[in-house]
Amino acid sequence: DIVMTQTPLSSPVTLGQPASISCRSSQSLVHSDGNTYLSWLQQRPGQPPRLLSYKISNRFSGVPDRFSGSGAGTDFTLKISRVEAEDVGVYYCMQGTQFPHTFGQGTKLEIK
Amino acid sequence: EVQLVESGGGLVQPGGSLRLSCVASGFSFSTYWMSWVRQAPGKGLECVANINQDVSEKRYVDSVKGRFTISRDNAKNSLYLQMNSLRVEDTAVYYCARSGSGSYSYWGQGTLVTVSA
Question: How far apart are CA B29 and CA B46, in angstroms?
């Protein structure tokens, strides 16, 4: 199975400041079809996960443009340009290149 | 509006069985892969099983192979997970999710399965 490793596991951030989460996979996520199936999800307290972005950098419907994904191969990053109070929660990266699809351990974003 | 509504969770003894259901609305159910993802209390996410549009392909994580069966009824816009030989470590919230483009785009609210004596 592909192992997804996120850093940091906890990120205290000041409102209005940027935040960044890294995700590294144990092997390349480039699929034989040429796509890289790396997505990011947000889970607010008491809520189900919500898709933020897919195929590295495609923002999902309704997701604010302060969220952006980047990276390639085995190294990926989610950036939030200016953190808002509603961004509190746990963020997961996920690979959909090889089954079983696997998730990172989660990064808890909290406000300082 | 896309909606996924799970049901069927509950308390069951080790070795017991449960059948989870998920009813979908707001999209063309028969044209999407569908998945079950679980989350143990206070833990991360684990993809349990997924199924393609015409039921010709089913995939399972190793820990549930031979015990869980995923199925769907496109006429009823419904996804199912039959869980047999349940173990304490299967205790989790089980989410139904719409799959596609290597991601999970929509999620239900989840149904809690507790395996305990």
Answer: 23
| Side-chain half-sphere exposure of B8, counting CA atoms within 13 A | 18
pLDDT tens readout for residues B77-101: 999 999 999 999 999 999 999 998 8
Instruction: Count the Cβ atoms, other than its own, within 10 Å of residue B73.
Output: 13
Q: Which two tokens stand for residue A65?
A: 């443009």
Question: Could you say which of B62, B104, B108 has the minimum Cβ distance to residue A51?
Answer: B104
Residues 2-31 of B with CB under 8 A from A: none
Who contacts B111 (Cβ-Cβ below 8 Å, separation ≥6)?
B6, B7, B8, B9, B20, B93, B94
How many helices (H) and strands (E) are present in chain B, helices listed first? 0, 11
Q: Answer yes or no: do A101 and B47 touch at CB < 8 A.
A: yes
Query: What is the helix, strand, coil percentage profile of chain B, to 5?
Result: 10, 55, 35
Nearest to B37 by CA among B55, B29, B49, B25: B49
Expressed in angstroms, the distance from the first to the final Cα of chain B is 40
Mean pLDDT value across chain B: 97
Instruction: Establish if A74 touches chain B: CB-CB under 8 angstroms.
Output: no
Among A96, A102, A105, beta carbon nearest to B103: A96
Q: Quote the minimal CA–CA distance from A41 to chain B in Å.
A: 9
Given an 8 Å threshold on Cβ–Cβ distance, is A96 in contact with B109?
no
Q: What percent of chain A has pLDDT over 90?
A: 100
